[in-house]
Amino acid sequence: MSSKHQSPRQSLNASPLPEPKPTKSIVASKVPTNADANVIIKDLRHNYLGVEQVTRLYDKDGKVNSNVRIDFTSIKLANAALSKGYVLIDGKQCPVRTYQPPFCHRCHTEGHYASNCSQKPLTEQRLRDLFQQQQQ
Length: 136
Hints:
136 residues; alpha+beta; Alpha-Beta Plaits; 5-stranded antiparallel beta sheet; 24% strand; metal-binding; zinc-finger
């Protein structure tokens, strides 16, 4: 069997992670950090249909970085902006990509990372405790 062709079983098990869901949000990068959020949203609403909200993104230390999240009213409008590969902000082309929300690998839900998860980590002691609770 050549490497180009996979058996049905191999193709089913090829990717353990689910496909990313379509999103109404995109991320624009290389946006000047000193640009005012009101100017950014006004500029985007002037140039693109369906811009709902613009949110500045921050790094792990809480500092403003050069990325902004742009929420659209529909997936179709977000995809239209993505198809160009950039958005115009203050006359400059800012590259865009799809927005991927934070994903917790502990509880397998979106919206936060494992470091901020409210579920307790599964240690050996906790596993024994859970097993004992099930036996009772």
